[in-house]
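seq:
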Amino acid sequence: QHHDVRALPNGNILAIVWESKTQDEAVAQGRDPALVSDLLWSEAILEIQPTGATTGEVVWEWHLWDHLVQTFDATKPNFGEVADHAELVDLNFNASAVQSDWIHLNSVDYNPDLDQVLVSAHAFDEIWIIDHSTNTAEAAEHTGGNAGHGGDLLYRWGNPATYGHGSASDQVLYGQHNARWTENGLPYAGDIMLFNNGSGRPDGNYSTVEVIKPPMDEMGYSSLLPYGPTAPVWLWNDGNPHSLFAQNISGAQQLSNGNVLVTNGPIGNFIEVDALGPRVWSYVN
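struct:
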């Protein structure tokens, strides 16, 4: 287990876990042998039902390994055009023989109204949404669940180059953390807030807090590619490296008074900003 957990309304817990894959297992699925070390870390999400003070039972699970696409080897499973399968994850994107932690999910959230799971894929500079209404068998397939797509990605945003619908100039997320739906009753309820760390931006390193509203149509998330929106509905600290740059960890949370609480993770400080941007309170560690 790593990085994050999320308590569910039913008392269960969602947890992100690494799954180790050998070099042979990775190559058998279509990973370029030159781009894998002796071990590859894939990702899974487990729903754990507590059965005692220190025990639990896995009652639902989703495995990234079931939702891959690759263009490297036509003789291997998952072969297909990446641009035709935005719902799948390119097994060779961001691949490296010196980096086993290929995806590095760093947050997980749950929307009880949609029965969906939101994760932040740090190494892909993206957020992903997965259907939780599936059973475990459906979560391993490409059909089933309320959306009818099994465990395939319902939505992704931040770096369209990951699914063949953009280039570096289209990237908008840079090492983001703490992607979460805003709770009902708060400003921007149902929208997604995240901390965009900003390391590697073309215009310099600075962090932003962003709120996005994923486009929806009658079938659910809009199928128009690349995935929208083209801009956030709320953005704090745009283009100001002197105000805040947190190169890793960090997060943000919508408050009931309309303000946003921001954490600068590396130095441990808290900042409260109002809806127009000015700081109204801070805590210096």
